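Customer escalation, tier 2.

The customer says the design service returned an amino acid string that "doesn't look like it belongs to this structure." They asked us to rerun it and document both sides in this ticket. The original structure tokens are below, unchanged.
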């Protein structure tokens, strides 16, 4: 396997048939993988004694009584309980959780930010997380937070898990490695990763500096959206999601494990690497997905559909059809609609729309919404194409046109999103954003005909 040298010497499973570079294909499959031959018990989960002297341990991602339970059986050198006590509270002041409503911050509005710049300070996955918005309530497991990460340093003998949330990671710059209990995910721009709630991992910089976006999902897990009339093919195809094969470290070294739990952070000291799962099987596992595999489906004669057709993943809320979070992708595609104003229409939406630019230009905002930048159009607040996009699209000669070199995304939630003090005061907020609509003029003069 072609991987950069790793100081932690992970022992990884040989690449089984049907995998590419240490990953197994499929979304939510029941996987099985072992890094040493015979480490995975066959035909049962809890043998009286496991091979190699391993401990069996279950990680449950859904309630025991769920209709479709999600859980993974791990066979590990030491049970997790060896590294989960005597926690000391620590402060990560930039990583906020909902509810986080700052009385001095106004969230009602349309907002846009330039990319949050890197600083001289060395930052890890934990110290470099900057919360931009929060929604819902982490304690009742509803809602989400959006973050920007700025990472320049690897975690060394430091590990982390979030009991609060599943993380959807959307890199924009640099390459990261997620060395997890269940295997290794290498991640670069145009790919995304899902790190499940409760999974222990360490984040290393493969190529820095690294910047990206994170959607922290407090609620029910992300799943593939129902396809309805679209049918079995296109959009995100399940086989393009890749789950890592087993990889473990047998490493005794003073280490820390930090836990995010009900919005607070605590650390414990342990004497070994917790990435010691030699074999595992189950359907609760991290995965990555290459966004270039997303096959967009759209209007092929006229009009502009709702952006739900571009949903990559959806995290349901209790209300059918109304997501806790939709992850929506605006990527390269052909525009062929006849007699149509092609960019997104002007609109107000009960859902709150947090957008990020991964690369290129977004059709509704040719200027100002730049790679690494973000925008927020909060619940029921009007927005749409800026003046430049409006004039261009309403006067264009319409033929088949490729929207090329473009990749933006949206975290859309049913809950209002509240800006953090960081987003309002420290991040590069564009004070003049709403001016992009100011010069839209009245064209109506009482006479019929198109103006
Ligand atoms: O506001 C936006 O730019 C996102 C968006 C895109 C689209 O094609 C339709 C609706 C919508 O909210
Ligand atoms: Fe919108």
């Amino acid at each position: 396997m072609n991987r950069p040298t790793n100081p932690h010497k992970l022992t990884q499973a040989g690449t089984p048939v049907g995998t590419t570079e240490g990953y197994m294909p499929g979304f939510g499959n029941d996987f099985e993988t072992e890094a040493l031959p015979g480490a995975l018990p066959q035909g049962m989960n809890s043998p009286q004694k496991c091979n190699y002297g391993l401990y069996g341990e279950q990680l449950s991602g859904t309630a025991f009584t769920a209709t479709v339970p999600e859980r993974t059986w791990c066979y590990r050198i030491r049970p997790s309980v060896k590294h989960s006590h005597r926690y000391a509270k620590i402060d990560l002041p930039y990583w906020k959780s909902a509810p986080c409503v700052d009385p001095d911050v106004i969230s009602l509005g349309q907002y846009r930010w330039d990319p949050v710049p890197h600083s001289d300070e060395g930052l890890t996955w934990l110290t470099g997380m900057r919360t931009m918005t929060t929604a819902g309530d982490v304690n009742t497991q509803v809602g989400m937070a959006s973050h920007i990460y700025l990472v320049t340093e690897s975690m060394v003998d430091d590990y982390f898990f979030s009991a609060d949330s599943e993380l959807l990671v959307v890199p924009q710059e640099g390459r990261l490695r997620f060395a997890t209990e269940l295997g290794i995910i290498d991640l670069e721009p145009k790919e995304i990763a899902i790190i499940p709630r409760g999974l222990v991992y360490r984040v290393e910089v493969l190529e820095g500096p690294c910047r990206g976006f994170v959607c922290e999902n407090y609620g029910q897990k992300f799943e593939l959206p129902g396809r309805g009339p679209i049918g079995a093919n296109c959009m995100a195809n399940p086989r393009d999601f890749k789950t890592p094969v087993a990889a473990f470290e047998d490493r005794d070294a003073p280490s820390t494990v930090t836990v995010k739990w009900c919005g607070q952070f605590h650390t414990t000291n342990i004497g070994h690497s917790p990435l010691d799962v030699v074999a595992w099987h189950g359907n609760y596992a991290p995965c990555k997905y290459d966004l270039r595999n997303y096959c967009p489906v759209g209007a092929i004669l006229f009009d502009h559909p709702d952006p739900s057709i571009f949903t990559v993943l959806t995290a349901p809320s209790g209300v059918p059809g109304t997501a806790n979070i939709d992850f929506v992708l605006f990527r390269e595609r052909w525009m062929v609609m006849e007699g149509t104003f092609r960019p997104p229409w002007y609109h107000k939406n009960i859902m709150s729309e947090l957008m990020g630019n991964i690369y290129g230009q977004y059709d509704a905002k040719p200027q100002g919404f730049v790679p690494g930048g973000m925008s927020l159009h909060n619940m029921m607040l009007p927005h749409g194409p800026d003046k430049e996009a409006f004039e261009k699209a309403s006067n264009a000669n319409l033929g088949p046109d490729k929207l090329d070199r473009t990749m933006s995304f949206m975290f859309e939630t049913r809950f209002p999103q509240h800006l953090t003090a960081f987003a309002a005061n420290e991040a590069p907020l564009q004070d003049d954003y709403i001016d992009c609509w100011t010069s839209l003029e009245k064209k109506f003069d009482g006479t019929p005909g198109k103006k």
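Tier 2 assessment: The sequence is consistent with the input. The longest strand covers residues 201-217. Residues 347, 349, 353, 377, 383 surround fe (ii) ion (ligand 2) (CB under 6 Å). Sent an explanation to the customer and offered a walkthrough call.
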